[in-house]
Each structure stands twice: as C-alpha cells, then as structure tokens.
Amino acid sequence: MLECKPADTLIEMNHKLCEDMDQEPTNKxxxxxxxxxxxxxxxxxxxxxxxxxxxxxxxxxxxVSHKNAVDQILRYLKLALGKGLIFSKNRDLEVVxxxxxxxxxxxxxxxxxxxxxxxxGGNLVTWRSKKQNVVSRSNAEA
Length: 142
Hints:
The protein has helices at 28-42, 49-55, 64-79; strands at 95-102, 113-120, 123-131. The protein is of the alpha+beta class. The protein has a 3-stranded antiparallel beta sheet with strand order 1-2-3, with no helix packed on it.
C-alpha cells in the first residue's frame, strides 16, 4: 500500500457494510492481521476509531467489500501522516462529555450504536462506542 493513492475520507458516508453470504470472501488471516496492526494505531488516532469499530464486526467472515473498507482506512492514513492526539497544558481543567447514538444504524441486525467522548481541559482522554444488545424501536429507546 506504499504506492497507493491517498484518500480524503476515512469511510464511505452512509456505508452499507453488512454480512452477506453472496459476497466474495477474502483471506481471513490477512484481514485479521491487518486489523490487529491498526488497533494499536487507533489508541492515538481517535479519528479512525469509528471506522475501526465498523470493520471489526466482520472479523469472522470478511468479504472483499470489508477488505476494501480496511484499505480505505490505510489510504486515509497515508494522507493524514503526522496527525494524532495532542495533549496541551491548560490551566482550565473543565470536564466535558459528549454522547451520541445512531438509531438502528447496523444494516445487518438493526441494532443501535452508542458512543461517548470525555475531554479534560480541552484534551480528549476517553472515548468508547458500543453496539446495543437489543433492537431499539425509537430514538428515545436507543
């Protein structure tokens, strides 16, 4: 991928990645190794966290479209070299939290994904996203 064309976007907007039995399978071991290497990078590159959570859902049976999504992450990283988390010294230690939920965002099982971010003094210190255990029937329930 060293000679690949860089990409401006990390993941296709309104992507429809799902588990489809009709899709052409790809090399499972290669997919898992590549994903495993990207996991370490995600600790300092919070911008790839969402895309990583999407492609992680297909570890047991990846297809060519899932491999293409991982390749898109690599092409984005090539364009965004040198970016990462920067922690700056700040006298103000205000704690700010943000949260969001997509309603029935998974094409495969219609479950919602919730996420949160926590900032201390303007620095991102924690973040998490989690797919809900049950299917939500409304935004309020999600």
